[in-house]
Amino acid sequence: MRRPPAEIVASLLAVTTLFTPAHLPPWAIFVSWAGTFAAGGPNPDTLKKIWVTMPIGAIVASLIVGGFNLASGYFSGSSLVVAQCIILFSLNAAMMSLGRIPALSFVPGMFFGFASYFATLFGGFGPTPGNLMVALGATILMNAIGPAYAWVTANLGAHHHAKVAPIGRAQQAIS
Known about the structure:
Blueprint: H1 6-16, H2 27-38, H3 44-72, H4 77-97, H5 107-122, H6 132-156, H7 169-174
Helix pairs in contact: 1-6, 2-5, 2-6, 3-4, 3-5, 3-6, 5-6
């Protein structure tokens, strides 16, 4: 049986994001969907590393926002900015340091979750816009769907493989 082009499969999946309930962030699916392909495609190794690391990034982002909120109750002006710098530096460094653990070594996955959290919270997405914990849950859920969409795209769609003309010796010498 001939499979439909991957572009058709991916576009049909993209249409499903129009029906995302509870004002969940559909673009978080796209972030992790594209990230899965950028990380090597939806094979078992990539899926494992992206599904493990994205929630870490989202959790750290929520801790940063929570830390900023807490600091704003004690500091203002320049001292608040210094406190925010310390919070951001410390938590970001801790998150990236987790990448030294082999099972958590896919640091870009952490940043997919990290960025998705900030966009969810500050974009007013989720069933309760502005709620730190609801934004965290919404981000983790929607990021988790993206790699599944990548798997469906790769396994149900026929991919186009462009033919590349070989480079001649003279062209190689001047490249």
